[in-house]
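Per your request, structure below.
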């Protein structure tokens, strides 16, 4: 393509080393050059569309499209659009005069910021991101304005440029990147396709690469909810997460004051590993992908949701410090929390039965919100459900009324009993049921934290695991049972079991319990178990280190077996019987393992 040089000149910048600075400070994000250039091309296409709608352009619009071409042999990438194009004067204005406050200031301000250096857009450097991968960049462009001549601009990364006239029939721009040696990874089609699909999957103008359109120009969050059916939302979810189960339900966000925000958030079926569920919300700005690290925009507990958020109030190139300080971001955060709370309240009020069926899947999310966000708790306390071992669901207030008569202790505090493993703690659950006590099922990965939150937020409520102590100590009443054993017998049986336990971690005590309770009950203090569970959930090492957990061995003074042990013919028989009963108690807590378990089985089989 021949051209006549009309002008040579220098770019209006404050220092000659701007391009090395761009490359150095934005290197970790070097793939975004394609996002920036394609976004510019999309903007140019949308502008011609608007001008036509205003009656300021009367020519044929044609099919608006951005085409990305790779020429591996020539080592070029070309981004073409048929948008508004530029005149020679506009190139001088928008390309030659870099909207930049000074490279020196840039270096000083961001040299210690690490990842926060990704801020091209703030300084009008979108086009110049091309120089992160290109040694030479050409622009061939023709303005939509009547009588405009096509022009060619070329710059090799120094501050020198050439501007010349050129032949070009159609309006629009071609940006031709001559790829540098250290960036030849971008001359692979799979690499370009991956970047285009990542950042441009939902751009509003068609993007063509290798003769295929790679984007959905009209995703559902740009449409009115009244124009959409459930199938549309489910189909879009599959587009985002093709291998996931269908979501439980969703929220369509749409607000234009005091900030602009659209999007769709889905409630997935959560697994018991909430760490693995994160980073499933994608943040867009005018349908251009920004990031899936939405920590400062979306409250922590809502990061368990999936979906998209789009806000033009958040710039494309955004730093963490910007997100943390920006007022709009904080408002968006609060708005999303409120909308999620309102949606869950609405479902609970309108379809209690359906909500209960979903609660096992969303309970982890709701509990996480209660633990971490006080504003969410104010709404969630009315729809967060507790489930007992019979599979019945209660709100907090419903459960308070349900157990009030039977599970209020002598200090007028309600004791809510729970199990974290119904099979393992079955003996303790059955003992509680004999007393007509109700037992909650709290077995999710964050329930140790949730229990703490309940005790802090609900007055005169104490939550205890059903095997944390003997029932008479878990729920202390005014009337205490009397022991059938004399003080001397109690001392004898206590010493016998201390010898059988043979561990400094075991604290042996004799208690007066009902006759139908277990003869020996092994329990762990609630505070110690809960602290250990919470630290395990957080991935921290136990504060108790490698020390064995202290546990209590409670001997039921009123159980016939204890009396039988005391009245055995000789000391050897006493010890054998005590060992057998003690091992059964260990077995019920999962504490009998290895050689001890093998010997127990052999003794049991031998006695049959």
């Amino acid at each position: 393509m021949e051209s006549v040089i009309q002008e040579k000149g220098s770019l209006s910048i404050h220092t000659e080393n701007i391009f090395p600075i761009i490359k150095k400070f934005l290197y970790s994000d070097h793939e975004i050059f394609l996002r920036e250039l394609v976004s510019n091309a999309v903007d140019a296409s949308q502008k011609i569309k608007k001008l036509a709608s205003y009656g300021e352009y009367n020519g044929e619009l044609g099919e608006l499209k951005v085409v990305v071409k790779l020429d591996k042999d020539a080592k070029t990438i070309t981004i073409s659009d048929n948008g508004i194009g530029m005149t020679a004067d506009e190139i001088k204005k928008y390309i030659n005069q870099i909207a930049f406050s000074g490279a020196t200031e840039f270096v000083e301000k961001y040299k210690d910021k690490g990842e926060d250096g990704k801020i091209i857009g703030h300084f009008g450097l979108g086009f110049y991101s091309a120089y992160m991968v290109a040694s030479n960049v050409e622009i061939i462009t023709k303005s939509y304005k009547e009588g405009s001549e096509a022009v060619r601009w070329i710059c090799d990364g120094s501050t020198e440029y050439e501007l010349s006239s050129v032949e070009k029939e159609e309006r629009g721009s071609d940006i031709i990147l001559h790829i540098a040696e250290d960036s030849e990874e971008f001359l692979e089609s799979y690499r370009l396709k991956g970047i285009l699909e990542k950042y441009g999957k939902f751009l509003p103008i068609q993007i063509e690469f290798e003769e295929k359109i790679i984007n959905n120009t009209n995703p559902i969050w740009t449409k009115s909810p009244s124009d959409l059916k459930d199938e549309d939302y489910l189909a879009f979810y599959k587009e985002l997460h093709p291998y996931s189960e269908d979501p439980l339900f969703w929220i369509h966000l749409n607000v234009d004051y005091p900030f602009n925000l659209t999007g769709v958030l889905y409630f997935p079926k959560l697994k018991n590993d909430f760490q693995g569920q994160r980073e499933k919300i994608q943040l867009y700005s005018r349908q251009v992908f920004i990031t899936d690290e939405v920590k400062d925009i979306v409250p922590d507990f809502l990061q368990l949701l999936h979906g998209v958020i789009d806000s033009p109030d958040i710039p494309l190139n955004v730093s963490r410090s910007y997100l943390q300080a920006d007022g709009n971001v904080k408002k968006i955060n609060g708005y999303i929390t409120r909308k999620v709370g309102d949606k869950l309240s609405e479902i609970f009020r309108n379809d209690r039965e359906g909500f209960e069926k979903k609660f096992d899947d969303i309970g982890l999310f709701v509990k996480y919100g209660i633990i971490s966000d006080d504003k969410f708790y104010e709404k969630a306390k009315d729809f967060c459900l507790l489930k007992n071992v019979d599979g019945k669901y209660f709100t907090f207030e419903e459960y308070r009324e349900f157990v009030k008569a039977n599970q209020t202790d002598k200090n007028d505090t309600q004791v809510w009993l729970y199990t974290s493993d119904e099979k393992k703690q079955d003996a303790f659950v059955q003992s509680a049921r004999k007393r007509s006590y109700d037992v909650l099922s709290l077995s999710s990965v964050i329930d140790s934290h949730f229990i703490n939150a309940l005790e802090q937020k609900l007055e005169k409520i104490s939550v205890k695991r059903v095997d944390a102590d003997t029932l008479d100590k878990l729920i202390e009443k005014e009337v205490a049972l009397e022991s059938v054993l004399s003080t001397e017998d109690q001392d004898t049986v206590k010493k016998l079991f201390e010898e059988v336990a043979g561990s400094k971690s075991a604290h042996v005590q004799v208690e007066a319990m009902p006759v139908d309770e277990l003869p020996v009950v092994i329990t762990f203090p609630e505070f110690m178990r809960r602290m250990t569970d919470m630290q395990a959930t957080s991935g921290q090492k136990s504060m108790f280190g490698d020390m064995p957990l202290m546990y209590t061995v409670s001997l039921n003074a009123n159980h016939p077996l204890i009396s039988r042990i005391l009245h055995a013919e000789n000391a050897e028989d006493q010890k054998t019987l005590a060992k057998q009963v003690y091992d059964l108690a260990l077995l019920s807590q999962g504490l009998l393992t290895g050689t001890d378990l093998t010997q127990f089985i052999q003794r049991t089989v031998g006695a049959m």
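The chain is about 35% helix and 20% strand.

Regards,
D.
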